[in-house]
Target: Aminopeptidase
Amino acid sequence: MHNVEKYEIFLDFNGYDYQGIEKIYLTSNEEKLELDSLNLEIESVKSDGREVKFEAKGEKLIIYDKVERELEVRFKGKASRDSILGIYVAPYNGKGMITTQFEAIYARRFIPCFDHPAMKARFRLSVRVEKGLKVISNMPVEKIEEDANGKVIYHFQETPRMSTYLLYLGIDDFEEIADDSKRPTIILATVPGKSKRGLFAINVARKVIEFYEKYFEIPYQLPKVHLIQVPEFAAGAMENWGAITFRETALLADDSSSVYQKFRVAEVVAHELAHQWFGNLVTLKWWDDLWLNESFATFMSFKSLKYLFPQWDSEGHLIYGETLSALEDDSLTTTHPIEAHVRDPYEIEQMFDNISYGKGASILRMIEAYVGEENFRRGVVNYLNSFKFGNAEGKDLWDSISKAAGQNIGEIMADWITKPGYPVIFVNTYGNSIRFSQERFMLLDSGLNEIYKIPLTYEINGKFSTLLLDKESTEIRLEEGLKSIKVNVNRTGFYRVLYDSLDLAFSSKHNVYEELGLVNDYWNFLLADLIDARTYFDLLNRFTNTSNSFVSREITSQLLTLYYLFKKHYGKDFLVNQVKIFRKFNDDLGKLAYSAVINALATMDEEFALGLSTLFDQYENIDSNMKEAVAIAYAVTTNDFNTLLEKYKKYTIDEEKNRMLSAISSLRDPSIVNKVFSLIFNRTIKAQDTRFVISSLVHNPHIREEVCGYLMNNFDEVKKFINTVYGGPWGLGSIVRSMSFCGVDRPKEIIDFLEKVKFKEIERPIKESEERIKIYSRLKKKMP
Model:
């Protein structure tokens, strides 16, 4: 590997085309040099001032010469109007913002470079554009000069050492607001007319940075941070150092926004700012450790929100939003260890999943609970100081936490990181004895098993204890009779618990998190055929009058899934009762639960939808937490596609546009299917929302047959569009996953189809879809 010191890059833009001259300062003793380069026209290459022979081959620029100090490349490039990766045009209002998205391997579409996370360098960027345009990059502008051709050149300060995937360039008529009351300056940039909705994000960012500076004991390293709203964006957000990009719904919220919208903005801003230390200051050596970047940012975002917004109970949200979805995905045979071995760079995209984010964050929470909060923090601080401006591996972090805690956690961490899946703990009682036994939990029995090193937490007769369960089973004898027991206290462990009776499960009082875990465990035991439907509904009946917002939302989600699958309205009494309970709540958690319940009832129950739909005439003036449910109710009761589409087109705020997409996806008229796909292909529906819309349509049991038929009959067209927009097959993978719902009514036909269209890059999503089809088919036979 070469030692790269610095890139000096000059780009001259004419519209969406640009000419580039870059100088790369490096030391190398090899006779030929290979840079990463894709979709760029290379005009000339100089090595230490001499013209040299070069060849563009595949994604490589091969230079047939020994470079001792300076490499100069002249090239041409273009911002793509088709894809939303690399350097591309994000369209809005007939205009286009030039913006970039380089993680994981798309900087090579922008400049010839060493597109590898460990090959850090400093970057000095100069950009010539038409007068009137603004340019944003990672660092502040050093100077702006006018040239003789009526254009302006933005010269940016030099960056610290960083990876190519963190480089950023944005060109547009940006509207900016800033908080320069202290260092760093926080600047919010949007397309014209939207910046006033960014004050909430700026306030969150300021407080989060202060929290992280105190927690990490390292100041934010750059003079400024931009928060940039991008009209079309493949991911939710991207942590480019000092120039963070967001899709609109992850950045903009104001007093008119729902509680969910504000929570999402705060959580995503906090997540991306955590990366400024964990990922940017200290970077992974290779993508095997991607999870470390993402899980730590996820873990820290919820920790900071606990400090900023205690009323949101962010720890509960971490369990509800991250742990539970990770547990579900990790119980399929298609799962992978947290630490995955990436050989082909195009495999990286498949690593951005619930395992890398949710499971990783949950394991960090489990380890923090095991070693203690302050020991954990001290280990993180020492790790960041040891590797700042450099690269590290997972084991470096475990070593650091082990030293701080005075106990070796490396073995426990290795167990959880290198093994796929997780265990279910069986709790059985015999007189005065309690037996804990473990086996790998899987939704479909595959014959695979593992023994995990489990930091088990439990309370027996109100007394808290821990043990490291590293064998198949262990037994505890009590001196007195068993009165109460609960396992996985505070729900810090990444495992499920199955008691030998429901009475035993409820022998102890559970807190908010433990109730949530219990309800989710038993839903998954139903899916895994470990309990029958009667036991499941017995459990739900014990929560009919719950005022636990997380439990209410979780049960609502389960009942909605059953409706999507089988078009049957299970649990109506529960939902109606929850409406009565949470209608009286005025706190944010209560509003979240109320919103979830009325959304579900509007979808499932025509009588309820009919009543709620009368509010559609006053849509603009109703409580924002009710708006989506009202729009869905209107769709269910009127099938009025045209009105919803007109509203979608009229709205300029994505928060509102997304509500209309939810409503359109809830229509019960099969004739809309062709219309919606036309809107996707002609980009009336934003490319970034394609996966959400198709998945929502597939879930809708009233039009599912037509949607699935369309996907099967037009798979090549869908595949081509998705691959172009998302720059590869990972977008197609998420659509294939949603097709598991197609298999509810026609399992064999859908599995045969998926096998026919299978290719290497979507092998895992296809296998996951097939597995879910088998799970749902088995569940269908069990349900009353």
Notes: The chain has a mean pLDDT of 93.
